[in-house]
Here is the input.
Amino acid sequence: MIFTIPNVISIIRIGMVPVFVWLLLGRDDPTSAGWLLAAIGATDWIDGFLARKLGQVSEIGKFLDPAADRLAVAAAVIGGWISGDLPWQISLAIIVREVVVALGALIVGVGARSKIDVRYIGKVATLGIYFAIPFFLVGRGTDTTWLEWAAWIVVIPSLILYYVVAVQYVGDMRRALRADEAVSSGA
Here is the structure.
């Protein structure tokens, strides 16, 4: 079933991404955009929690939840870079990591039957990114220096974890492809 409560929440989160972009780039309002991104990030756990609690875990939900995360982070990183509200070094580090993981996922999606499970450390890293980017945006929008410092304090360890889990995912992807090769060759 597509229209479960958790899936509707994920769809709403995805629908808020264009509003975020409009606030940031259309209205030049990094403060409101930062608060909306914080809300999108804060509700990240709700859809998964409800899916498990209500027995509504679905394949579409397993796609929608991470899609909402990726779209929100991508919009925030690219939009923040364009607007100048997110330091370019942070934007570049996140974009490079996302491209590598996305290419790996595409290769595995095309070439492997095995699924790659989301890692807890990846969720922690994503949570840190979800905190740091709104801190940068709200800090820049309100000229609140301590928020920008808080953003740097959160984003650096989050980026380290983001890259650690990317390396783990690459290993997972290689194992999935090898396992599928072994099954295909009858080994």
